[in-house]
């Protein structure tokens, strides 16, 4: 019912607008088109100034209202993120000045040089000096931006430190799967044709490869604060993207083409709860590449913690190979699991 | 027609040659309804066909955005009328996920290709090339007609895909495989995707037929005296647009054909090592990233295919209504040329986070940010064109000024995204949505509106209603900023695009209020566009009649034709050109048409 009501109001508003528009056309004929033109011209010129002043004020207000909700208001949680925030600030400063300057000139000129009978437009087809200035000056500023940008970019995309912890993360519709290399620090070989979630091998790990026997599988990523980590990123079905907003990073997960990404987390989850003042704070992994109907729900969690907390967590985990062994042959499993848990104990 | 009559065009209504008397002068055959309105080879009629088809698509595409904004703005509300209209797609009055993604995908596809490519360049290239260079028609009227009808066919196929049981394509307008290649992965990747690809193939044929025609017409059919450097900037912009289209659309075609093969013939161009919904696929050795290269090799020039014609029209309209020559005519052409070249060299800036080699990425950063230089030149030249002018705020001029404002706003955020360091953070967030909607969506629409308001008198011999035009402009300008400005903040909060619902995300859920605000404004702005559509169709039949041949006091050749030019445009001889198109305010004269010979000792410009 209310739907029809809204439609009726809209239709009415439409008719009224149309009638006014029609009437104003007749009035302009009566008043003389020249006079109407001049009146309209003054109104529109004035509106441009209103728009400029109102627009800048609204932009200011918008910033006051929403700045606190953006990531600008909280420190980046990785060293890479700090570089990105610095680059962001430099870019906002440069473009901000240009934005205000050009918008003010645009609307000010529109207002100031509105039609009057008294003025004759100034014939000014070109001026080499001026044109040279606004070719060279933007070029210089852009060189600075490109220089900073590439310096940071090559630093961030360079090789990971040798001591970086390796974590593999694999996307599929619509969740993330995590694998740790275990004590040998080598991820076991995979073969996608072996993938079989129902028999406990959702990642398609090749158990023939001994390096896979101590690999741990998890649903959450656990990281140690201030310790570099290298993510090895895979996808099983379609392209996904590991989006890490608080670290300011992201990298696509492409089927058939593994990618990597490294960074050093700076704050534990607990510290971030204090910094943001949000007791529910959690590092989230968002899928940032359209991946199907459940794209918006493809959420992962990263827990950044101290070394001690991390070790405690690790102690609760069993290698997937061992878990499967236990399931398949329950009797000898006892012996098997003790032998397999030894390495775990050594890691601790 | 002699040049004397044109000289006084603004004032002497008596000098107007009605087309009743002369228009069909040289064409003795009678046009039937079919040859005049349907299978017309007259460039002006084809332009109108493109424009009206584009408008229909714009309404559909715009409506789709209103529907998915309903979901984003009011995620907790249900709208029973949606279920009445869309059945299972909106069960319980709430837009389903599949439907949401189908709407987003079709919104993008329709607006980018069918409205802002076909509707914009199709319309104004067809209308303006022959009229402004002094030709009777396009180089090949028949190919031109085919160009429209291939577009029409593409439209039919795309429209039909909306009614398929499994829905239209829904993997995003960029249709990245494997998502778009695997029906198991996505409802929209079933039959809907084949329709999408076939429609796009037809669209590309249309675009190529049109583009080749535009280029050959501009190069070969200029009237006597119309050297390349005497052409209006509209024609230069359209020329570069056509070159971009002819060189880049075939690459998309190849990408689309390979995708069709992967989907239907079992090839592995884009597929490798895939396990989808537990099913292990045999494909190995393909590269999903290859498609992105092929797509963006068109996809990026496409942005300029959309934007350049708008820039050209804005330059022309701004000069006419400032009563001043466009500042730096040659610099304007040079910057168009520079943009055209760079457009081919920056495609991988859409792919910084795909695992692209960072060293390679560095070159794309450099080349991408280089585009800011010609863009800056254009902006400063437009500003200087306004400076010390005598500005008339016709509706077209309002939209031209609005265009510059939006181009500045959206262009500057491009400097953020083109910088790979920042792109790591901002890629695929609402910052990107805000950026490209302002600079390529709304700005190009403003260019298109400016063009429609300026050349409507030439198209239909009538004016659009001014009051409705002013309302249209102000609501759209304010609305566009209200919708897209706050989105930058969502982007800076890292909010990803293409999410139907943010309520489960600790990091993104505190923008619900802003989303509601944006959705509400979007609906108002959409309603105002309907007012424009109404104004357009009403004015075709009932608008105030144009009584003078040159209503805007412009220099270009289209205003030397009769008010309602027939097929062939000029009843008598083609006009001869003696000067550039921007002699406004020269030697104390308000304007000097291109057809007037240079005075003695008069400098060219």
In short:
The complex is a heterodimer of chains A (348) and B (605). By secondary structure, chain A is an alpha+beta fold.
Helix content of chain A: 40-55%
* Protein structure class of chain A: alpha+beta
Instruction: Indicate the low-confidence ranges of chain A by residue numbers.
Output: 333-348
CATH fold-type name of chain B: Cytochrome C Oxidase, Chain A
Helix segment tally of chain B: 18
Instruction: Report the helical percentage of chain B.
Output: 55-70%
Radius of gyration of chain A: 31 Å
The number of domains of chain A is 2
Report the CATH superfamily of the largest domain in chain A. Cupredoxins -  blue copper proteins
Sheet having the most strands of chain B: 2 strands, antiparallel
Query: Helix and strand succession of chain A?
Result: HHHHEEEEEEEEHEEHHH
Class per helix and strand makeup of chain B: mainly alpha
